[in-house]
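[step 3/7] inverse_fold.run input=structure_tokens len=489
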């Protein structure tokens, strides 16, 4: 039996949530059991993010809290994992009053047990931050808490080198896991009772395994687990093609939801960002999606106030947002990141007050668009995966539609993990509110003819009582590769 305990706080994107599960699996084999109580741990990690300055600030603030604990419990090994570890490397060991014993980057997690032992034996701090061209942890089955939604990293790294982005430096070159092992993992997850799987990669359209591309992978997963939902994120507009929309159309259990980051609507800014597409090309993809999959929901990422962005550039971004009418958008002020090309070569010349003004402007506009789109949902019917109790009101359930919209409905006659039919009665810009319209007694519920009725969702209830709301926070987020989340294992 494992007697030593490991505690991990996870920051950043879903990729980090998935990596934490890999780390727990590696440490499980070395005799560590996960704990959610920091004070009880023998080993404590933060799995960190470096995407924007405030992501790193969060970790620095949290380390101040850990300082007192280290004083009380000096034998506890404390470490930083993930993108900030890779970004700042040994600078981390020299800071924060020597409370950090280990700094380990995303491609070095197999070494963790040995590094922890060495640190314990010698009292010296350890660092492992080499990036690999081949590591995918393909053979490691992640240590997952019970739940209804699971993430699978299908590829690691990114070769796009957008000039603002730190990810190619923190995660290294692109490499894909094998299709066979991913499809196998989907089947195992179904057996464990998971009801939704999100395939993850910074740029899933670059997935490649012996000639099989991402559409082939998506089809293989959809076929492997026809009774559960498959989502994916993130697509890069440059590589998005019709084969992918055709594949999404061909399988009822692939969610009709596409996250397609725009970043800016100005060709001049897109060029400075090295996004490798123009506004025209981006719009041609949107048109193709809307034509071939009119029911698809679209979301995006926008950066405002990138180097040299003028009001005219900003207005162009707003124009595209108005034209596309995204269901949702993640919007950020540009944050210069050391090591990136923009940091080294382009002045961060839009003042913070102006960045914030532009940000508020697009947030307000997007909220109105989302409000309008959600108003149009009133009267519609959706298959919703019941995720758990609503945080705001214990007497209500929350769940998501195929299109990734949050739906709240009265907590009667349903179980977590069920797919249920809900009719939408009212809405606001962020949420739909509805009522159950299917009958509990029926063993199965098929989706509407619009969903082509090919898939029968099993109604077998799945209870996730052992997973707390907090632990679950990673999957509360919409499937997009971005929000700063933190979750504790
Ligand atoms: N691989 C995904 C995005 C990963 S990062 C893609 O290319 O779409 C998630 C989002 O964070 C990005 O889409 C971008 O909008 C934002 N982001 C990345 N670097 C940033 C920076 N330096 N400042 C502000 N936002 C940034
Ligand atoms: Fe890669 Fe996305 Fe970062 Fe661009 S924004 S470098 S595609 S992770
Ligand atoms: Fe890394 Fe994800 Fe943040 S890849 S930098 S943890 S957004």
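[step 3/7] decode complete -> sequence:
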């Amino acid at each position: 039996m494992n007697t030593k305990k490991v505690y991990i706080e996870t920051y950043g994107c879903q990729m980090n949530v998935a990596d934490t599960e890999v780390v727990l699996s590696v440490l499980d084999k070395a005799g560590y059991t996960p704990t959610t109580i920091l004070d009880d741990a023998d080993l404590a990690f933060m799995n960190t993010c470096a995407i924007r300055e405030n992501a790193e600030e969060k970790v620095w603030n949290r380390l101040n809290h850990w300082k007192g604990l280290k004083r009380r419990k000096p034998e506890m090994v404390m470490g930083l994992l993930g993108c900030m570890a890779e970004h700042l490397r040994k600078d981390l060991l020299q800071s924060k009053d020597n409370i950090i014993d280990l700094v380990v980057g995303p491609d070095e997690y197999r070494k963790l047990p040995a590094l922890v032992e060495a640190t314990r034996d010698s009292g010296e701090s350890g660092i492992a931050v080499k990036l690999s061209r081949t590591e995918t942890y393909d053979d490691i089955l992640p240590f997952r808490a019970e739940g209804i939604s699971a993430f699978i990293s299908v590829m690691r790294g990114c070769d796009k080198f957008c000039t603002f982005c730190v990810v190619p430096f923190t995660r290294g070159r692109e490499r894909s896991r094998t299709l066979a092992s991913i499809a196998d993992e989907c089947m195992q997850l179904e057996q464990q009772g998971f009801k939704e799987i999100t395939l993850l990669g910074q740029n899933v359209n670059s997935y490649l395994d012996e000639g099989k591309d991402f559409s082939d992978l998506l089809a293989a997963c959809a076929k492997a687990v026809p009774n559960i939902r498959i989502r994916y994120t993130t697509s890069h507009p440059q590589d998005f093609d019709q084969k992918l929309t055709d594949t999404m159309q061909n399988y009822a259990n692939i969610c009709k939801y596409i996250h397609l980051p725009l970043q800016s609507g100005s060709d001049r800014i897109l060029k400075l960002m090295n996004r490798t597409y123009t506004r025209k090309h981006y719009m041609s993809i949107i048109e193709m999606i809307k034509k071939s999959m009119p029911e698809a929901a679209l979301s995006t990422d926008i950066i405002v106030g990138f180097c040299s962005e003028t009001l005219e550039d900003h207005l162009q971004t707003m124009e595209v947002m108005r034209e596309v009418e995204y269901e949702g958008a993640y919007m950020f002020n540009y944050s210069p990141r050391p090591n990136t090309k923009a940091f080294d070569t382009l002045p961060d010349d839009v003042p913070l007050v102006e960045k914030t003004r532009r940000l508020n402007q697009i947030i307000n506009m997007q909220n109105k668009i989302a409000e309008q789109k959600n108003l149009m949902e009133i009267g519609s019917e959706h298959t919703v995966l019941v995720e758990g109790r609503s945080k705001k009101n214990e007497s209500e359930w929350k769940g998501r539609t195929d299109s990734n919209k949050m739906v709240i409905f009265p907590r009667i006659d349903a179980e977590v993990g069920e797919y249920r039919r809900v009719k939408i009665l009212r809405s606001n810009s962020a949420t739909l509110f509805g009522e159950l319209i299917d009958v509990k007694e029926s063993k199965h519920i098929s989706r509407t003819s619009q969903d082509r009725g090919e898939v029968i969702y099993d109604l077998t209830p799945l209870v996730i009582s052992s997973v707390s709301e907090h632990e679950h926070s990673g999957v509360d987020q919409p499937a997009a590769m971005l929000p700063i989340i933190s979750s504790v294992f």
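[step 4/7] annotate
Residues 352-375 form the longest helix (24 residues).
The two ends are 19 Å apart (CA to CA).
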